[in-house]
Amino acid sequence: MLYRPRVAVDVERLYRRYGPMVLRRCTAMLSDEDEAMDAMQDVFVKIVRSEAGLDDRGLSSLLYRAATNTCLNKLRTRRRKPTDPQGERLAQIAQAVDATAQSEARSVIARLFGAEPESTGTIAVLHLHDGLTLEQTASVVGMSVSGVRKRLRKLQANLRALEGTA
Amino acid sequence: MNGDVPDLLVEQLALGELSEAEANAVREALGDRLEARLQALREDDAATLQRHAPAHIAAQIESRLAPRSGEERDTRRWLGWVGAGVLGAATLAAIVLLWTRTPDAPAPDGERIARADPADTVRIKGDPRIVLRRSRPDGGADPLTSGDAVSPGDMLLVALHPAQASHAVLVSLDGAGEVTLHFPAAATDPTAVPDGGLLTLHGFELDDAPRFERFLLVTADTPLDVQAVIEATASLHTTPDPAHAALGTPQGARVAEVLLERKKKTEER
Q1: DSSP state letters, A87-155
Q2: Given an 8 Å threshold on Cβ–Cβ distance, is B131 in contact with A131?
Q3: Do A20 and B44 touch (CB under 8 A)?
Q4: Boundaries of every domain in chain A
Q5: Residue of B30, B45, B60, B62 best to disrupt the A interface, most CBs of A under 10 A
Q6: Domain tally for chain B?
Q7: Long-range CB contacts (< 8 A, 24+ apart) of A73-78?
């Protein structure tokens, strides 16, 4: 039996515009098509739940960040080790997001809408993995450059500590 | 990252979500590579939307948003429910023949139907397979494999991976003998599937049918007769062990399956 509840947001339209981008992002981070599809749907569920009146314009930053955060969370709990250098880097970032940062992750949408600071892990992926400049990263996550730099310093210290124990 | 311009910025340029200054900076940085990057995105967009149809994905996402109980539900029966009674005498045989759709050269009567190979139920990369997930109240979903228990009200997310096969039919049989057609959407629709990747279908809420829910994916390199698959599946209900009886397929077709055990709902979620 198909079950389609009423949803205020036009999910189909939202997916048609942004779905491919979100799926590309998730596939690139997870390197697994099934997991990426699951993550993509998680992202849209979170976004739609966050705001029933979403305007489906100008959401690329929001969705990209949500996808990044969702995939990081999946990577953090993944048991198998990555087989490529980029995947290894992402895994390191995921693990380096310490308990404090994990607690930040409890409400991705509240954070994305500015009620809480952006996840350190997401900032790190955007800058260290994707190659956005500090300024671009700050613009995408809606923070100051100095705020981004501060978060990265903390994470890089964790990365170094992890490397030291590897 | 792809080249010296981050993917996000190229995505945003393609979506028209950069300021003019930002867009110009991206165009300048990419130079001659700009059109190739944008064209690659356009092609991938089209492929994704073909493989993961917007209506189906929207249904899956909306199913994850669904309240679990106590709220008004807009429900409707999915296409393809076939009551066992409707099939009547057609279900007398324990195993019936399935024919590929070959209008010019009908399959010969009496062709032996191959038993579903148990190896097909094992997820092997490159083999056609059924992908099932059960949505959670928090919006996530857990994978389901053969032997997992499911309950009335569980929302299953259904997808198939045709691998190298070019045609597929996905059905499920429950313990009450009802057959649900999951792919294609209707018995009269073509069975062709997009190349390669995962094909997402829809959210599927389990009713209170007893004992089991058995998903069967028939794949082939030639068009399949959907109605024949439905009837063959329904006929399994007349066998002594419908959860495990072999589904016949025409030569060259393969069957993959997932068998979920039904358990009674003992408590409200």
Answers
A1: HHHHHHHHHHS-HHHHHHGGGHHHHHTTSSPPPHHHHHIIIIIS---HHHHHHHHT--HHHHHHHHHHH
A2: no
A3: yes
A4: 11-165
A5: B62
A6: 2
A7: A73/A105, A74/A30, A74/A35, A74/A39, A75/A29, A75/A30, A76/A102
- Report the b/e string of A58-79 with b at 16+ CB within 10 A: ebbbbbbbbbbbbbbbbbbeee
Q: What is the extent of the structural domain holding B175? A: 54-68+76-262
**Which residues in chain A touch residue B38, judged by CB atoms under 8 angstroms apart?**
none
* Rounded CA separation B143/B101 (Å): 33
pLDDT digits (tens, 9 = 90+) for B70-123: 333 322 222 222 222 222 223 222 222 332 333 333 333 322 223 333 333 333
Let me know if residue B2 belongs to a domain.
no
Name chain B contacts of A66, Cβ cutoff 8 Å: none
pLDDT tens per residue, range A80-92: 565 666 666 666 6
* Record: contact B58-A12, CB cut-off 8 A: yes
What's the gap in Å between the CA of A125 and the closest CA on chain B? Answer: 10
B118 and B137 co-located in one domain: yes
Residue B197 CA to residue B189 CA, distance in Å, equals: 20
Q: How far apart are CA B61 and CA A48, in angstroms?
A: 9
Assess B242–A contact: CB distance below 8 Å, yes or no: no
Q: How far is A109 from chain B (nearest CA, A)?
A: 13
